[in-house]
Design a protein that fits this description.
Layout (H helix, E strand, L loop, with lengths): L1 E8 L7 H15 L3 E8 L8 H5 L9 H14 L3 E4 L9 H8 L4 E5 L12 E2 L2 E2 L10 H5 L7 H13 L1 H5 L3 E4 L2 H10 L6 E3 L17 E4 L8 H8 L10 E4 L5 H10 L3 E5 L3 H10 L2 E4 L9 H8 L4 E4 L4 H5 L3 H4 L7 E4 L3 H29 L2 H15 L5
Amino acid sequence: MRVVVAHNRYRQAQPSGENVIVDSEIDQLTAAGVEVIPFLRSSDDIPALPATGKALLPISPSYAPAAQRDLDRLLAEHRPDVLHLHNPYPLISPWAIRTAHRHRVPVVHTVHNYRQVCSAGLYFRDGRICTECRGRAIGLPGVVHRCYRGSRAQSAVMAATLALHRPTWRSVDRFIALTSAVAGHLRDYGVPDERVVVKPNAIADPGPPAPLGDGFLFLGRLTPEKGIGLLLDAWQRHPDGSLGTLRIGGDGELRPLVTSAAAGRADIDFLGPLDRSAVRDALRASAVVLAVSTWHDVLPTVVIEALASGRPVLGTALGGIPYLIGADAAGHAGTGAAAGWVVPPETAALAAALPVARASAAALAGVARTRYETTFHPDVVMKQHLAIYEAVTTRIT
């Protein structure tokens, strides 16, 4: 099978799990015997564009002429079985779907965010969940609030793009929803159930889990939507040392809040940004991993890393987190008990759950590992992935 994987890489200055997932997926597909033809663009290349390319940037989210010409040539030359689209913005554009269909190539799209509706892609604005653009013909609130790149002009372009390409998105042959929450978003958008498949990402098997450590681990961006403020507020409701150690790994705009909290309590250990080896060490040292996002987090990879390491997860009941833990109907199917706990994104609820999670962690360690093996192991996920390609390989007529 021959597959074109199309993705506009996010800037290196804006660390992106999506870039990592696409790279990993290309490697996994190649290992499975798929001939992968990458069609990649990078937002880091924008400053080096020629004058004509820069002049056309304002329309690129709607229609990127250079990318469409290149894609047209690539499809004519290689005649792939499938075009697999990830992020199209800003240098590819959803027009790639139309270009592929013109060549009678079916399109699979992995939905990494909510940008079919939301200009920012997050359903999150000014420190709270925001769905003001849902159900509108054009997302004017996103323009008013400068939701795309902090610019009213760029937000207007993105809002117009989303309105223009509503029929384009709905023509995709198969959507890959990373969790049941994303599947619900697509249904709300008007995509029929038969064109949506829930298939999460996979991560490599780290091997048999180490014995449980003690305390809790937060890994992620130190930003409002990731819930670090919520977590620290909940932690402060318990006496110093009563829950073991809270380890915090990551960086971001709320770093001063974290360093201040760590300076004031002996049971908070701020680890700063971590490389892969340090992440593994932090997981081994801990008993429970925290995923306390205050937005509808699509698929926080840290949850899968925790499960693979045999660590149960305490998370908020938002976005894909319940599915990942196995605490919703779709996540529960055929897997038995949930591999952790979910609570409302409220200080009191999280504070009450912390001692419960610490006391029950050992009982759920095996459940966590089983959840990984049955749902997120590369062998399981790639089998689903290839089945999706097989289902759409009949040429468009």
